[in-house]
Amino acid sequence: MWGKSLLISPILKPDQRSLSLYLPEGEWWHFEYEQSRPERLTGQHVIKTDMKSNIPVHVRGGTILPIQQYVLRNSSKEDTRNLSLYIFPEHGKAFGEFFLDDGLSKDTIKNNLFILYNFSYANCSVQVTKLGNTTWNALTTTLMDVYVFKAKTVTNVEINNTTKEFTLDDKLNVLKVNANMELKEITSITWADKKNGCQMLA
């Protein structure tokens, strides 16, 4: 386990093509970005056989997972970060957080050179709150995309009450929101059907 939300199953042998891993009770998702899928068997050992491309990573249901997009740079100091959010609701709720500092300075918490973003999902709405130095501008973080799993019917998406473009995969029930906004400016992400209702899979 890495924290309380990620289960990472390392490959320990060269050319290993299968792996037996234990999934605790509850809802777990085999993480493959927007292609993530729910695991049907939990509370027991499961066998993974497709080991050619990725180490198995599972996300616990009820998690909002921020993923920073990796960019190779010539300089050791970054001036921007691009972020995606992956939302895996369980029983209609999900939570997550993202800690941000410049990656270089010492004693960032003591010197208040950080921002901690908290994400909370319920009823087709994500609320974003901030702790720390909310006026700190040492690093720009852009929220590029938001992926919401279990989405059923969506006709409108808004960020801070401004309409945003989106796509909905009807087969995987994944809503993709094209955010492309500075994270520090975002307070809410909401979506609804044509009757302004919230339709999500259980």
From TrEMBL:
Domain Glycosyl hydrolase family 31 C-terminal: residue ranges: 1-65
Pfam families (UniProt xref): Glyco_hydro_31_3rd
SUPFAM superfamilies (UniProt xref): Glycosyl hydrolase domain
Transmembrane segments annotated in the record for this chain: none
InterPro entries named among the record's database cross-references: Glyco_hydro_31_C, Glyco_hydro_b
Domain of life assignment: Eukaryota
GO terms, molecular function: hydrolase activity, hydrolyzing O-glycosyl compounds
Protein name (record): Sucrase-isomaltase, intestinal
Organism in which the protein naturally occurs: Stegodyphus mimosarum (African social velvet spider)
Taxonomic lineage: Eukaryota, Metazoa, Ecdysozoa, Arthropoda, Chelicerata
